[in-house]
Design brief:
By secondary structure, the chain is α/β, with parallel strands linked by helices. It is built from 14 helices and 13 strands. It binds pyridoxal-5'-phosphate (PLP).
């Protein structure tokens, strides 16, 4: 993609910075399948500590981290409870069913947020007729919900309810860093209510590749085995772990800039009658909006913006998604708003 594009499609589009590339170049490496890559080991220890868990495992993607977690918690014929629009239910090819043999029971959230009342009665009795309810998952921040932060007291209440019913608890925290920066609640305080947690280095943190799964030592040992059979055993992965370590050191606090840019996008968009923000108030680094059919379709708007050198993502629900990240500046936000002004005023 040419340098001049302003790319709001996702926070995955960031490219490693020169300093991150230097860290990668200088990384000490070994064979991680033998457990001998010192940089991978350092990353895993660091992540475990940051998340308040005994151990962590470096994996190539968030999809693999979630799948490995589900396989670690469940056996075939078990059931997991999850929100109806969460990433692991919606965007991961039903890997939980395809590969782990697990059924999903979904609960419709409001912008990705579910309540304890909605969960009452969902545990299946221990009877030969039923799948066995084993696991509950939450996503924070919630991607399709609009980058929504799970309300902390609700996370506590849901996890407490789950623990009382003997359920395992998994957090898909691909964007947990954003939730932590936006609320000031430390990652380890978010994760202490869960058995396992997935985090991502290649979204807002800007590393080229990588996620991690953290949890108790015995579960992470099992996860290590599941990672191998999925093809996730990597060799001199220290080059990638070095980028993730660099990102943890340098790119967490700056997420606040992405959040400020998302607010700036929202303020700019609110001025247009033909635009409706949905959710109305962005909480982190994502802005979703609807364009009035009087103007045209989301795809038409995306095509028109592309001609201005701006990339946005039309979604299946008829919205446009904008994500702010390391490679989007305040000036880029202003250019986007100017382009919108030009287009919305031209047509109506
Ligand atoms: C992106 C994402 C994932 C999956 O990560 P990949 O590295 O793309 O496989 C999982 N959960 C959430 C919430 C995500 O946004």
């Amino acid at each position: 993609m040419a340098e001049r594009w302003i790319d709001f499609r996702s926070d995955t589009v960031t490219r490693p910075t020169p300093a991150m590339r230097r860290a990668m170049q200088e990384a000490e490496v070994g064979d991680d399948v033998f457990g001998e890559d010192p940089t991978v080991n350092r990353l895993q220890e660091r992540v475990a500590e940051l998340l308040g868990k005994e151990a962590a495992l470096f994996v190539p993607s968030g999809t693999m981290a979630n799948l490995v977690a589900i396989r670690t918690h469940c056996r075939p014929g078990d059931e997991m409870i999850c929100e109806a629009h969460c990433h692991l239910f919606h965007y991961e090819q039903a890997g939980y069913a395809q590969i782990a043999g697990v059924a999903a029971r979904t609960v419709e959230g409001r912008y990705g947020v579910i309540t304890v009342e909605q969960l009452e009665g969902l545990i299946r009795p221990p009877n030969a007729h039923f799948a066995q309810t084993r696991l509950i998952t939450l996503e924070n921040t919630h991607n399709r919900g609009g980058g929504t932060i799970q309300p902390y007291p609700l996370v506590e209440a849901i996890c407490q309810w789950a623990a009382q019913h003997g359920l395992r608890r998994h957090l898909d925290g691909a964007r947990l860093w954003n939730a932590a920066v936006a609320t000031g609640i430390r990652p380890a305080d978010w994760t202490k209510h869960f058995d396992t947690v997935t985090v991502c280095f290649s979204k807002g943190l800007g590393a080229p590749v990588g996620s991690a799964l953290a949890g108790p030592k015995d579960l992470i040992q099992q996860a290590h085995r599941h990672r191998k059979v999925l093809g996730g055993g990597m060799r001199q992965a220290g080059i990638l772990a070095a980028a993730a370590l660099y990102a943890l050191d340098h790119h967490i606090d700056r997420l606040a800039e992405d959040h400020a840019n998302a607010q700036r996008l929202a303020e700019g968009l609110r001025r247009f009658d033909l635009v409706e923000l949905d959710p109305p108030k962005p909480e982190t680094n994502m802005v979703f909006f609807r364009i009035s059919p009087r103007w045209g379709t989301p795809q038409q708007l995306a095509d028109a913006l592309r001609k201005e050198g701006i990339l946005v993502l039309p979604t299946a629900e008829g919205k446009i998604r904008l994500v702010t990240h390391l490679d989007v500046s305040g000036a880029d936000v202003d250019r986007f708003i100017q382009a919108m002004e030009k287009m919305l005023l031209r047509k109506k």
